Amino acid sequence: MQTPTYAGLTGLIEAEGVGVLIDNYADGVRPRPRYATIPDAEILELNRAQVTWAPGPAGEATIGRQRLAFDNQRFIGAVGWRQNEQTFDAVKLLARPVAGVTVNYGYAWRVNRSFGRDHPQGVWRGDIHMLNAEKAWKTGKLTGYAYLLDIDEAPAQSSATVGVRLVGSRPMASGYSATWELEYARQSDWGNAPADYSLDYILASVGMKTQTSNLDLVLERFEGNGRQAFQTPLGTTHGFQGWSDVIGATPADGLSDLYLRGSKRFDLGRPVKLTGEVHEFRDDSGDDEFGRELDLSLGAPIAKGTNVEVGLGYFDSATPVYPDATRTWLSLEYRY
Asked: Of 110, 183, 115, nearest to 149 (Cα)?
């Protein structure tokens, strides 16, 4: 529920509930060793409760329990794939000091994670500073960021990440556009982290797109030193490291993910979208293979405001560390 805006002030309250029809799975709260783990526990909670003050186009401030999603949500996100969304008890400030420049600063003291409040790691407390500044150009966007995480319940996840990101496109002939995405970040220990380390993250992507399709070749690399690895504990991993979610936290030897992703929209009396990805996972040196993955999804509207999607994530393991896995899903979404 959202209030009308008065003198630049807007309030929002949102509840979230997860119910279970068949409970023959381990949800991370109840120990059920014979069953597969699906970290979606039954819960009814306050998902968002925030007040936003926006006195003008140059800036705004939001305080309370809120959704935070910076850039592509790789480092700070809502984990929207899970049934229980990740939200933050935080203050967020947004400023537009000059045309084309946006600066975001957030301070969070509590993270309401997607596992739910009854999970041992369902709530994180600490001091979390998030700074993200972007400049828009005609052919793309340049972003610089710094995320400082000091987490009480998970000291090993405390870190300082500083990076830069460039995303752009350029029109070509015959309705095609070239696209690119480049990113570099450096992560080191911060706050109550128990070990000293400094590790790199690199992303490089090139592709082509039209009004109805896109195809990208992507390399994403997380460095590891055998004891620690570059981590993204507050990010959304599902859309990046394969839809099977077999590989979550970065292994100690790091991770190199080379993949091809694409999508195509068809008109079959109604718009239908086919999306797919093919991944090859190795350690950051490229010497040891972790596995390969194929992901496919098909989505279409079936009525006004209603969409259906069916999907598959198939992980073929090449190491005892990760199991083979097949994930399928059927989702129905209604928006009003």
From this structure: 110
DSSP string computed for 57-109 = TTEEEEEEEE----TTSSSS---TTSSS--EEEEEEEEE--STTEEEEEEEEE
| Distance separating alpha carbons of residues 283 and 250, to the nearest angstrom | 9
**Averaged pLDDT for residues 322-332:** 92
Question: Do 27 and 36 touch, CB atoms closer than 8 A?
Answer: no
- Amino acid 272 reads V
Listing DSSP states for 206-257 in one string gives: EEEE-SSEEEEEEEEEE-B-SS-B---TTS--TTTS-TT----SPPTT-EEE
Question: Token pair for residue 281?
Answer: 């996972």
Asked if residue 183 lies in contact with residue 221, where contact means CB atoms within 8 angstroms, the answer is: no
Which amino acid appears at position 47 of this protein?
Answer: N
Q: Residue 294 and residue 31: Cα distance in Å, rounded?
A: 30
Q: Return d(Cα 207, Cα 162) in angstroms, integer.
A: 26
**CA dist., res. 45 & res. 13, Å (int):** 11
According to DSSP, residue 6 is labeled B
Q: Would you give the DSSP letter of residue 3?
A: P
When pLDDT is cut at 50, 70 and 90, the band that residue 43 belongs to is: confident
User: Do 247 and 322 form a contact (C-beta atoms < 8 A)?
Assistant: yes
CB atoms within 10 A of CB 39: 20
Which residues face 137 on adjacent strands? 140
CB 325 within 8 Å of CB 315: yes
The Cα–Cα gap between 246 and 98 comes to: 43
CA distance 123 to 139: 40
Q: What is the pLDDT of residue 260?
A: 97
CB 230 within 8 A of CB 251: no
Each residue's pLDDT tens digit, 107-126: 999 999 988 888 888 899 99
Mean pLDDT of the chain: 93
pLDDT of residue 34: 81
Residue closest to 116 by CA, chosen among 203, 34, 28: 28
Structure-token match 């969304």, residue found: 85
pLDDT at 308 over 90: yes
